[in-house]
Each structure stands twice: as C-alpha cells, then as structure tokens.
C-alpha cells in the first residue's frame, strides 16, 4: 500500500486526496495496481478483503477497489 498525497496530474473520477494506491492479488494470482476507495486511512490493512467496482471515465471504466462489507450475524 502507498499513500499518495499529491498526484502529478489530477485523477478524474476520484475523491479528495490522499489516494490509497494498492496492489491487489486476485484469486487467479494476477496482481493489479489500483486505488482503494471508501475506506478511511486508519482502517486500511494488508490482506483485507476487497471487491472491485468500475468507475466510468469517458469511454473507459477504471477498476477500483473497496472493502468487502462486513456480514452481520443476525439470527
């Protein structure tokens, strides 16, 4: 994980700084460099489960990651 406080160029579709840059290892073994979104910095942990979502950007879609929502134990 890298905490990027000021990008060289503005990143369209992203929120405010800092950006959390992560390397995510997929189940297939491939590693993807992307951003972790919707996660406070003090809750970021190496190995935490994440899920992909796609942010539209013009004719493209950026793969971004966010933490997997916790499953509540309701009986």
Describe the overall structure.
Helices cover 0% and strands 43% of the residues. It is mainly β. A hairpin with a 5-residue loop joins strand 2 and strand 3 (31-36). It starts with a strand and ends in an 8-residue tail after the last strand. The model has no long low-confidence stretch (mean pLDDT 83).
N-to-C SSE string, H for helix and E for strand: EEEEE
What's the number of extended β-strand segments?
5
Terminal CA distance = 36 Å
- What gross morphology would you assign? globular
Strand order of the largest sheet: 1-2-3
* Overall mean confidence score, pLDDT: 83
Strand portion: 35-45%
Main beta-sheet strand count, sense and barrel state: 3 strands, antiparallel
Helix-strand blueprint:
Blueprint lengths: L1 E3 L14 E7 L5 E6 L13 E8 L2 E8 L8
Antiparallel strand pairs: 1-2, 2-3, 4-5
Short description:
The protein has strands at about 1-5, 20-25, 30-35, 50-55, 60-65. By secondary structure, it is mostly beta strands. The strands form two sheets. It has a three-stranded antiparallel sheet, with no helix packed on it. A two-stranded antiparallel sheet has the order 4-5.
What labels describe this entry?
75 residues, mainly beta, 5 strands, 0% helix
